[in-house]
Amino acid sequence: MKQYFSFQWHITDECDQRCKHCYIFSEDNCKKLDVMNWKQMEDTFYNCLDFCKVYGRLPYFYITGGDPILHPDFWKLLALMKEHEIPFTILGNPFHLNDEVCQRLKEYGCQKYQLSLDGMRETHDWFRKPGSFDITLEKIGCINRAGIRSVIMTTVSGTNIDEVPDIIDTVVAHKANVFAFARYCPTSEEKDVAIEPLRYRQLLADCDRKFKEYEAAGCETYFNKKDHLWTLYEYETGVFKIPETVEENMIYGGCNCGNCHLTILPTGDVYACRRVQNSKVGNVFEDRLADVWVCQMESYRDYRKFEKCSKCELLAWCRGCPAVASGKDGNFYAADPQCWKEITE
């Protein structure tokens, strides 16, 4: 069976918000807003399909920005996706959604629409835009009514970690189909997510307890344990067990960087991971992605280089988040700052 390969495709930097943790504006708040033209978008799309043909993968696109719906050729791109029967998810803002727009997205084949909640009302609106909290919750209904899966994503930092349990309650009350959280990746302006390892483990424990209570009550929200440190937590609590038969030097889970994911920016720059600031590996306008994958991407697949994880029995399943590690000191293979596991030499 063919596996999916995911392309996180930023088609524009245009956005209605200036979020305090946005990667686009983290380095230069006055940067020029980049956007792909239609010819570049077509070329990028077919470059991705070529990649999947070469490696026997099925393409999956995460269309994002900025806010992708602001791109003048947004609907034209979705028509191209539909023509080739390619599944996709939209990562965007709530401001331009209504029942008509969501129904149109569904007709073009949109499977999921991801929105962000980064705190309760005061905190979220401080991070993003006044009024954004209430609008986001309102638009969950629009997405659901169209038959698209609504996804709420929270970026966790020291600023909002105590609010995550309340966010879960709010998301469930508004009937979001999926909820997940990931940690903030530090940028050049801030080198720490301000969360101690054991505090993060406590968050996982608190959320796990809440997830189980909701699931037992028949809650329809799916709780996606996206952060790879969930694997460590579930290993310690007996939920995850290392299989008796495993192949040496095989990777079975954890970070998809170097395995089944690439990010493409509006400039055409290709990144191993958007959350890893220094991970440019090529340019989709100049390079064949199939070549980039076996050459420049190889440096992200040397699992022996993980300074802490390479000594851990969970190497093939966890590895924490290299993006968070890289954000702290620029080293992709450094120890995850929130990993609480003690490793003995």
Structural commentary:
The protein has ten helices and ten strands. It is of the alpha/beta class and 345 residues long. It has a ten-stranded mixed sheet. Strand 3 (88-91), helix 3 (99-108) and strand 4 form a beta-alpha-beta unit. It is globular, with a radius of gyration of 20 Å.
Number of strands: 10
Biggest pleated-sheet summary = 10 strands, mixed
Arrangement of strands in the largest sheet: 7-6-5-4-3-2-1-8-9-10
Taken from the alpha-carbon principal axes, the silhouette is globular
Distance between the termini: 39 Å
Helix and strand succession? Answer: EHEHEHEHHEHEHEHEEEHH
Quickly count the helices. 10
Let me know the average pLDDT.
93
Radius of gyration: 20 Å
Cofactor: [4Fe-4S] cluster
Protein name: Radical SAM/SPASM domain protein, ACGX system
Pfam families: Radical_SAM, SPASM
Organism: Massilicoli timonensis
Brief write-up:
The chain has 345 residues and is of the alpha/beta class. It has ten helices and ten strands.
Topology of this protein?
Blueprint: E1 4-10, H1 38-55, E2 58-64, H2 74-83, E3 88-91, H3 99-108, E4 110-116, H4 121-127, H5 132-145, E5 149-156, H6 164-173, E6 178-183, H7 197-216, E7 222-223, H8 229-236, E8 261-264, E9 269-271, E10 280-283, H9 289-294, H10 322-329
Protein traits:
345 residues, alpha/beta, 10-stranded mixed sheet, 10 strands, 15% strand
